[in-house]
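Query form — protein PorT family protein

QUESTION: What is the three-dimensional structure of this chain?
INPUT:
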Amino acid sequence: MKKVILSLALAVGISATASAQARIGLKAGGSLTTLGGADAKGVSNKFGFHGGLVANLALGDVLSLQPEVLYSMKGAADSDNSKYKINLNYIDIPVMFQYNADGLFFEAGPQLGILASAKSTDGTNDVDIKESLNTIDFGYAVGLGYKLESGPMIGLRYNGGITSIDKEESGTTAAKVRNNAFQLYVGYMFGGK
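ANSWER: The structure tokens for PorT family protein are given below.
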């Protein structure tokens, strides 16, 4: 039964994709990130960068599906000592559902983050902290923006973590700490009019 349902879902997905207008593009921008959650105390915002590839598949006149693969700099700064920072680098894979209204779009969807590197720094020394963090970060994203049929786009997005980034080790309880980010970006979609 599972194979039948999976095969049917795959067939529907392939036929929807085949009939959909697909566009590929690039996007990049700045990020304002921090850590949230019950155990995220004494942290402030940190600036970073994000950028990568996007694909947009039209699912009708006003709906589209937009999977992305992005390199994202996240983390936080210490609110008492601005030299101390936690620098987290992720490969983020959001899958956004977009509602399009004459160029203006609203979007929401799940996001999977894969931790590429993690360091804490005091301004002089870097310490690798990747082993103490979860490799996978589940979250969500919501945003809005404007795109022209000819290709250019601009957007603002909020990314919120659902799972804690701290790894639970034997005999200890993981701290409840999640990634949060605001992202402002520009991009270009190829294959426009």
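ADDITIONAL NOTE: The CA atoms of residues 108 and 142 lie 4 Å apart.
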